[in-house]
Design a protein that fits this description.
Elements lengths: L1 E3 L6 E6 L3 E4 L1 E3 L6 E6 L2 E7 L10 E8 L3 E5 L5 E5 L5 E6 L9 E5 L5 E6 L2 E5 L6 E8 L12 E5 L6 E8 L2 E4 L1
Parallel strand pairs: 1-4, 2-5, 3-6, 5-7, 6-8, 7-9, 8-10, 9-11, 10-12, 11-13, 12-14, 13-15, 14-16
Antiparallel strand pairs: 16-17
């Protein structure tokens, strides 16, 4: 299923109820600066959310009041993403492209829970609670091995107790290739 919302509001609230809600594509109008996700069910959006957000403002995704978890992708030209994790199992892929505004930055603030985070930007900051988390951060390369301009300069990662995996890796042609 696809949802296209043509609106000019800067805040979008999504209440995910039931067991699991999955969308193939989602377009929020290009003006969103804050997406708030609540509810007790998983919210999964397979498509790229980049075009839903205002590229000139930080994209804030606040899932802190969701207990089911979120599966989200931002794969393009945003300058900054701030993600507040859910209480469930999150799976997020944030690959920030080149920004005409300069350095790209991802901040993930988390609660206790298990999450999988694939993060590419010039600066990556992660602060998670207890849980079994997998965090991949690094640089993108195309299928021919040419470096993308999304070079990571800074990574600060703090995690609580649990079986945590933290890797600085190369993402080659959209797949992971450990250094």
């Amino acid at each position: 299923a696809a949802i296209n919302i043509l609106q000019n509001a800067s805040v979008l609230r999504i209440d995910s109820q039931g067991v699991e809600n999955n969308l193939q594509e989602f377009f929020g109008g290009g003006n969103i600066s804050r997406m708030i996700i609540t509810g007790d069910a998983v919210l999964g959006i397979q498509g790229d959310l980049s075009s839903s957000f205002n590229a000139n403002r930080p994209a804030v995704i606040d899932a802190s009041e969701n207990t089911g978890g979120v599966d989200l992708n931002i794969l393009d030209d945003l300058r900054e993403v701030r993600f507040l994790s859910s209480e469930g199992e999150d799976d997020v892929n944030f690959f920030l492209g080149t920004s005409p505004l300069g350095i790209t930055k991802i901040t993930v603030d988390g609660q206790d829970g298990d999450g999988h985070y694939d993060l590419v930007a010039n600066a990556v900051y992660v602060d998670l609670g207890n849980g079994d988390n997998v965090i991949h951060t690094g640089q993108l390369f195309d299928d021919e091995g040419e470096a993308d301009d999304r070079t990571m300069d800074t990574a600060v990662i703090t995690v609580g107790n649990g079986r945590n995996t933290i890797d600085a890796i190369a993402f080659v042609g959209g797949t992971f290739a450990p250094n």
